[in-house]
Amino acid sequence: MRWTLAPKPDQEKVAQLQKSLGVEEAIAFLLVQRGIETFEQAKKFFRPQLEDLHDPFLMKDMDVAVKRIQEAVHEEEFIMVYGDYDVDGTTSVALMSSYLRTQTNFVTTYIPDRYKEGYGVSYAGIDYAHDNGITLIVALDCGIKAIEKVAYAKEKGIDFIICDHHRPGNQIPLAIAVLDPKREDCNYPYKELCGCGVGFKLIQALEQDKGNTVQSLIPYLDLVATAIGADIVPITGENRILAYHGLHVINTLPRNGFKAIINQIKKTTLTITDVVFIIAPRINAAGRMKHGLHAVELLTEENEEQAQLFAQEIEQYNKERREEDRSITELALQQILDHKEEDRYTTVVYQEDWHKGVIGIVASRLTETYYRPTLVFTKSGEKLAASARSVKGFDVYNALEACQEYIEQFGGHRYAAGLTLHENQYENFKQKFEEVVAASIETRLLTPEIKIDAALSLTEITPKFYRILKQFAPFGPGNMAPTFLTTNLTDTGYAKAVGQENDHLKCCVQQLPNQEMLGAIGFNLGKKLKTVANKEPFDAVYSVDENEWNGNVSLQLKLKDIR
Description:
This protein is an alpha/beta fold. It has helices at residues 11-21, 25-33, 39-46, 62-74, 87-100, 123-131, 147-155, 195-209, 221-230, 237-252, 256-265, 272-290, 292-300, 304-338, 359-369, 396-401, 426-440, 463-470, 529-532, and strands spanning 2-5, 78-83, 107-110, 134-140, 159-163, 177-179, 347-350, 374-380, 383-389, 409-412, 416-422, 449-452, 454-455, 484-491, 496-498, 504-510, 518-522, 538-549, 552-562.
């Protein structure tokens, strides 16, 4: 692990902010580090307001999209809401379809079959629309590269409105409207919306055009917050506002589908981390193991008992998904050893019978063992399909672009992408990808990095400090939970490895003799027990957390690494 201490912010700004807010220096230090330098900025950070969302009409083509939907509603045209099968896609479809159904009865939903149709807009989906008299398709979380498919739909008399957030290619589809803040010709102030976020801006525009405020759309924010967490977009700017209020909806008045999932997990208050690791995998499991429409049904169900049944069904899919991803990860790790590929710059593995629904999860798991850009391939029809995952600081999308001669189709982001290629190009691609990454990646990026916000003494960790720290949430990219460094710690003599296989480290630490002690837990740090044994001094990188045991709540250090 590389430990990297963030640069110290301007001390004068820290002192000014500390004075105006009346907080400890460490809190002001963290805020200035995050670009929050004034009382007004701090107020917006700690109390995000829906009124601070940008005007949706600042997005290119928004006026055209609103006009076309209003026309379709007025003329009683059949509208198809089309989305991808992942969490961002299914929440987008749930959001848009449930909103449009408050305006018109002529709405249907469509999620492509992951196995028969693959990612994005499909010819099969357009044919289905044509066969059912649909004249307008609103595509969410996909479509920005669907040049030929949008043209095909046009030939059949079907208009497209695209709501996407992926990087466009050289051409923009000739749709009625293409809403994508990443378009070079789009001046929308915030570029990091997820697909569901772009969909939300469209319904915000539709409401605004009717003279209504964003307050009328609060019930939809649980969907938006879930998509923001699951799609790992920065939780800054508009995303912070949407996630903050969306979490509030999840915890106070969630839709029946979320309520059914929450009832199964027996947790009272959910954080964005819970949304990412508890809610999102279950919604994703439907699209991975069966069909994304099951997730849309769960998220739009108005009958509470029926929602419970959908949630039970999806829980079963999630169990199957966990079993698949565990067994495929083991096979993939063995393949790396069998091929003697432990020391490469990349991981590229393939087996034709691996479950297409879990290869993205497997790619992420493989980076935990071999920290490097990773692709996991499986057979998909006549072609091979892969999920790509990168490491912090390396743009895998650009690396794939450099291998285009061997790829049939690809799309995605800096850190995650998907692609298809012909089987006879697999070895060529694998070699080229290794060469591209080897030539362009900085060696230091192949060692996981822990970014440290500040050095702290244990005496600064007080209940008041933690109370304010909690209000930095929701955490995520762009606003990670603060990570601290404390040096010269000693264990009080009770350190032990815990867990079924002694994987985890539990200890009680102090910085100076006779100083108050703090409990600490280090997941997957059991092997470092020797570092703290015999009261030897050590340094620790950690976040501050609460530990609840037998009704007692105390502060504890959540160790990330020690040395």
